Amino acid sequence: MVKNLRIGVLLSGGVDSAVALYTLMMEGHEVIAYHMKTMYDEFYVERQVKHKVCCSPSDTFDAQMIAKQLGVVLKIVNLQDVFKKSIIDYYLKEYTLGRTPNPCYFCNRMIKFGYVMDLMLQDGVDLVASGHYARVLDGKLYKAISKQKDQSYFLASIDRERLRKIVFPNGDRTKDQIREIAKKAKIHVHNKNESQDLCFIPDSDQIRFFQEHGIAIKPGPIVDKNGKKIGEHTGLVKYTIGQRKIGISTGQKNYVIEICAEKNALMVGTEEDVYAKKFSVKKLNILSDLSDRFISTVKVRKNSPESPCTVTITNDFAIVESEKPIFAITPGQVAVFYKDDMVLASGIIDEVLC
């Protein structure tokens, strides 16, 4: 990377972004820090935060402390209204359609490396950086060296043309190395816990969240594959494909295999029924030069194993055929396609075909 650049850094207030900022400073770059506020501070006062979340008032305080210690300008970016329209409203809509959304995937595309990145570029920065664990090489997105911390799955939503303006200084480091760098630099968040929950549901109470947004949680039938009622669920938003804890007893292990929003019904089956080999993907985000038909591996959840597959593309829609059955392919979740460590494309799982 060219020396003496002007780089905007997404400073969350955590150790990862702090070390990314510190690293760029040590390399001689002019650094400007940007801290996002996705929710109003009063929101967190009214909620019992059960686990560490991003963008909270304590994160803002930590970001201010880090910027002051390292002597960099910090800009607070208030984007509560934009975040609600782009992320929260999408999250609500998907659940009402019986789908299981992935808001972090869209937040990276539309907010962090969309709306906020645009603000940075308008400020005249040459590059945009964050503390994510991934790598950008020659304008292409790659997994991080540390496979345990790799975040390329969530970053696969970023627009291809923006990658050349992005740098991830932590991509070739482990979490332990990051903490050690922060400790030696006397950055006070060197042992800070990682964020676990969604910033807009800090108390993990999905039911409260939906009810506050005017969405009724209604009980309904649980049916088997033949449509026979075998029980009653307590609200579709509590379930996802592949879930085992359903609240019924039939003498066999039951798994959620389909969420039927239009009938307010939950369909269950055996473990075998949760596996599938063919599915469709919409809203493709292509990050490399690809033919209309290509071979890759696919990951259908952050922690799921990659599966070899063949992908056929038509416009921004794809049909994916896996070599082996994949567990719990879930409409609304993200499919990311890889060739070794390189991210080829990503999209939203639309429908399980067989």
Neighbour order of strands in the largest sheet: 12-15-14-13-16-17
Global morphology:
globular
Low-confidence spans: none
**SS strand fraction:** 25-35%
Number of domains: 3
Q: State the separation between the terminal residues, measured CA to CA.
A: 46 Å
Q: Write down how many β-strands occur, each being a DSSP E stretch of 2 or more residues.
A: 17
Q: Kindly provide the name of the CATH class of the largest domain.
A: Alpha Beta
What are the secondary-structure elements, in order, as H or E?
EHEHHEHHEEEHEHHEEEEEEEEEE
CATH superfamily of the largest domain: HUPs
What is the SS-derived class? alpha/beta
So how many helices?
A: 8
Radius of gyration over alpha carbons? 21 Å
The CATH architecture name of the largest domain reads 3-Layer(aba) Sandwich
Main sheet properties? 6 strands, antiparallel, barrel
* Average of per-residue pLDDT values: 94
CATH fold assignment of the largest domain: Rossmann fold
Helix content: 25-40%
Task: Please describe the structure with a list of short key phrases separated by commas or semicolons.
single chain, 354 residues, alpha/beta, Rossmann fold, SH3 type barrels, Elongation Factor Tu (Ef-tu), domain 3, 3 domains, six-stranded antiparallel beta barrel, five-stranded parallel sheet, 8 helices, globular
